[in-house]
Amino acid sequence: MRLHLPAHLTFVGRRSSCLIENISQTGAQLVVNGAPRRGEEGQLKCEDLLAFFRTVWSAGNLVGVEFDETIPLQTLLNLRRINDAYSDFHRMEARCTARRWVAGELR
Question: For residue range 70-107, what is the model confidence (pLDDT) as tens digits?
């Protein structure tokens, strides 16, 4: 399911922000500044989603993660509702901010 939701990542010794671009019950594609290494484990937090994961691939600022446990379908549907609730303005503003952040223009 395609989304454009801001989220937070927690790793041992560090935290970072990310943007969830795509998510399923078993994993997600994230946009991250300073992508984690393959095999690195962490925690993804977005609204009522709290998932432990392992990084399975990275390409530039894109990262693929695999969840330790299957995410309930209702949690994904809630994320979809939150995503859809953004007005067009907020959605465009969030994308612009995320792109600027990933490009290193915001600190």
Answer: 999 999 999 998 888 865 667 677 888 888 888 888 76
Q: Following CA atoms 22, 58, 37, 73 in sequence, which dihedral angle do they give, to the nearest 10 degrees?
A: 20
Q: Nearest 5 degrees, angle CA 61-CA 64-CA 47?
A: 90
Nearest to 61 by CA among 90, 96, 32: 32
The DSSP H or E segment spanning 97 is: helix 88-102
CATH code of the domain containing 69: 2.40.10.220
pLDDT digits (tens, 9 = 90+) for 18-49: 999 999 999 999 999 888 899 999 999 999 99
- Asked if residue 79 belongs to a domain, the reply is yes
In a domain, 80, yes or no: yes
Is residue 77 domain-resident? yes
Calculate the alpha carbon distances from 46 to 5, 26, 31, 68, 70 in Å: 8, 15, 14, 16, 16
107 in a domain, yes or no?
no
